[in-house]
Write a structure and sequence with these properties.
- By secondary structure, the chain is an alpha/beta fold.
- The protein has a single domain, classed as Rossmann fold.
- Helices cover about 30% and strands about 25% of the residues.
- The strands form three sheets. Strands 6-7-8-3-9-10 form a six-stranded mixed β-sheet, with helices on both faces. A four-stranded antiparallel β-sheet has the order 2-1-4-5, covered by helices on one side.
- A hairpin with a 2-residue loop joins strand 9 and strand 10.
């Protein structure tokens, strides 16, 4: 891994020597990972590289076979679920809402960590739900069933639910999958603006390499259960790393208008490989 990692002292959430797996196979192998506070960190890598496994471990969905995840100085897997949910929100891959559930009802579920037998629905909950729907631009759908919306609209509703938790840390697993490119770009614009304007910390798993390079403050490349590269896109998004991590022959160029870095196949024969790893021009 590159040497420009963030130190634990600057990170509320970090993993130490994480080994995680399913059945008899390890997916992550002794991974150290720090999440920079107040930044957008994007995880990329080939299928099976461990991106989603790392995110789920950070979110307390998976327990490591060895190592630990630390949140605000405590082992997250030994912390109470409700207390973790007040600090960290997760949008898993491909969430499904119960049939007939309205957008407002779905977003309201994000207030679960803040309620108890002694504290039921309050004006703070109402404010948080309305604010989340406004931020995610789904207020106009508030009374409509979630399952009657388009894919991009549904995804914004799920993001609103996570925002309603009012956590400073948000983890998102492939939030742009199966969405049209314009919808992907709009969604990433919204997420990055949210992080930069409010100081929230985001960790996002993406397949689309050019979207990742365009929107990441910190880009993390995984391969075979290890972090191969971690740094700013300017530092690590280059042809050598794309070849080493994705086995992709590509040139990295700078868009003359946006100044964003883009990977372009080295030959027409490489286009299929580019599509397979989800590289799309942002």
């Amino acid at each position: 891994m590159t040497a420009n990692s963030t130190s634990n002292n600057a990170s509320r959430l970090h993993g130490e020597s994480l080994t995680v797996g399913y059945d008899d196979a390890n997916i992550l192998d002794g991974v150290d990972f720090q999440v920079p506070d107040g930044e957008v960190t994007i995880l990329v890598g080939p299928n099976g590289s461990g991106k989603s496994t790392l995110l789920k471990t950070l979110a307390r969905i998976l327990s490591p076979r060895s190592g630990q995840v630390i949140l605000d100085g405590d082992d997250i897997h030994r912390s109470k679920t409700r207390e973790v949910a007040k600090k960290l929100g997760l949008l898993p891959q491909g969430p499904i809402a119960p049939e007939g559930l309205t957008v407002r009802e779905l977003v309201g579920q994000g207030r679960f960590p803040h309620q108890s037998l002694l504290r039921q629905w309050s004006s703070d909950d109402e404010r948080a739900v309305n604010s989340a729907m406004e931020t995610a631009r789904v207020m106009e759908f508030a009374d409509r069933p979630v399952d009657g919306l388009s894919g991009g609209q549904r995804q914004r509703c799920w993001i609103a639910m996570v925002l309603a938790q009012e956590t400073d840390l948000i983890l998102l697993d492939e939030p742009t999958t199966f969405l049209d490119l314009k919808v992907q770009v709009d969604l990433m614009d919204m997420l990055v603006r949210l992080a930069h304007d409010t100081g929230r910390t985001l960790v996002v798993v993406l397949h689309e390499l050019n979207l990742a390079a365009a929107y990441a403050d910190r880009l993390v490349m995984l391969r075979s259960g290890r972090i191969e590269q971690s740094g700013t896109p300017e530092a690590i998004f280059n042809s050598a790393n794309l070849k080493a991590v994705f086995d992709l022959d590509a040139h990295v160029i700078r868009d003359p208008h946006s100044q964003r870095l883009l990977c372009v196949p080295s030959s027409l024969g490489s286009i299929a490989s580019t599509v397979e790893v989800g590289a799309r021009i942002a």
